[in-house]
Amino acid sequence: MATNPSMAMLSKVLEQQMLQTTEIVEQHLDTEIEKFEKMDAEELEKLREKRLESMKKAQHQKQEWLSKGHGEYKEIPSEKDFFQEVKESKNVVCHFYRDTTFRCKIVDKHLAILAKKHIETKFIKLNAEKAPFLSERLRIKVIPTMVLVKDGKAKDHIVGFDDLGCTDNFTTEALEWRLGCAAIINYSGNLMEPPFQLQRRSGCITKMEKRAIRGKSNDSDSDDD
Predict the structure, then answer these.
(1) CA torsion through residues 82, 109, 206, 187, sign
(2) Residue 181, domain CATH
(3) Which of 87, 118, 121, 154 pairs as cysteine with 91 (C-beta 3.0–4.6 A)?
(4) Are 142 and 159 in contact (CB under 8 A)?
């Protein structure tokens, strides 16, 4: 079977690009290794001290987060407490729930896991029935709703499970990905590849995808419901 000339040319171009990329990476590594090898004892000591200082700062930051309640998923008793919590921390995820809504228990399970993993973010929950002012101000119409707060301002909402594959059986990784899309946690995965495929098979288009289609950002303090 004859090879398609266009495909052969495309393959050759891609191969050439990969070779060029590999060469660039190798050159960069060679430069770094050469720079390291040329360092004298004094320069190596300065580098070591710089890394130690960086580690100390990271540890200090971790202790500061823990002192503010990061690292655990906790319930706050009132609206007044909400304002204090978001004032203290740069990134906050607040789950507005009701005792009678069973899907809130699902959210609780995943947030408890993520709170321990992402101590850079504070994870809290608040009974929506005890927070009528906030519920109205944040336009919370569906329970459960997670409000994502950055620098004291509500930047995004996760309403129900539409953004999580349209299923009660979504994974912790799916919620972690969604929080990463809002830059409310330090996400190390690929934001362009959701860790679920259910919405494509079922024909459900998530709000995240709708926003991308419309060309809108995720920084919204209202929901679409």
Answers:
(1) positive
(2) 3.40.30.10
(3) 121
(4) yes
